[in-house]
Design goal:
Helix content: 25-40%
Number of domains: 2
Number of helices: 12
Order of helices and strands: EHHEHEHEHEHEHEHEEEHHEHEH
Protein name: Rhodanese-like protein
Radius of gyration: 19 Å
Strand content: 5-15%
Length: 324
Amino acid sequence: MSSTTRPSTVPLVISPKALETLVSKRDAQNNLRFLDATWFMPNLTPKRDAIQEFQLGPRIPNARFWDVDEIATKGPEVRNLPHMMPSAEVFAKAASDHGISKDTHVVVYDIHGVFSSPRTAFTFKAFGHSKVSVLNGGLPAWKSAGLPLEKGEPKEVKRVDYPVPTLTDGIIRSYEEMLANSRIGSRGQTVFDARARGRFDGTAPEPRAGLSSGHIPNSLSLPFSDLLKKQATASGEEYIVLKDQVELWRLLSDTVGGMEALEKLRQASSGGELACTNTCGSGMTAAAIWLALQEVGVQSSIYDESWTGWASRESEGAPIEKSE
């Protein structure tokens, strides 16, 4: 079975308060890199530009923008799908350009709270970078805590040489692997789908034109929004955070059919397996499930092309299941 990355030496999910302690330490400041990994749905109305908003600010001081659509594999080899896992060479170059070394503690955030940041954290972990954290509540939580912000032109950072890493074996699942797994039935690996329940059931349309809704046979519905909860700033601005471990335990155990089933996934993970796979619309919010599973001790992979890739093969025979 596939092996997992080495254990993290920093919290995978970190609060602004806990992070403030690290930032205040002089020895940590030189080895801490904030990455704004904000991404907006392409069909959002009105349309928003994540890069432009980052450049204008406010943002966390000395942060850099991690463009998930640019730091990616592109073209026909990935069916021209967006934000597919970058090659090791592309990842290493981007890390180098952002002033990140193998020992840098990377803190990823977004302006939603927790939405697109887990995807970038997953990417770093997939390439064996152990020191990575997701800022729980993102930029809104940082602002709400009264921590420093900056505006205007982002500061330049000194480029470093990040060695070309090796992608963790099996952490990105292919269509062929998913197809084979779907045919095994109940004996196959557990697959979680982060899309809204209506899209999973086939009762609501897909946002991408020309794609059928429904789901991969034998997969389980786990809308990523169920993993999150709302919080509000003193001014009433709402943002989202990851639920705490107790809440995640309950939700995940209910999804897989009980505590015993969840414990089996944990045991497999402790033995070095990637115990389940996550999917969504385009590989973005699947990482929210990955993050939640990590919090309860379950290691997982991502079907990177997700439903967009699967449903685009319907005419080629990709099976699509709809709920009764």
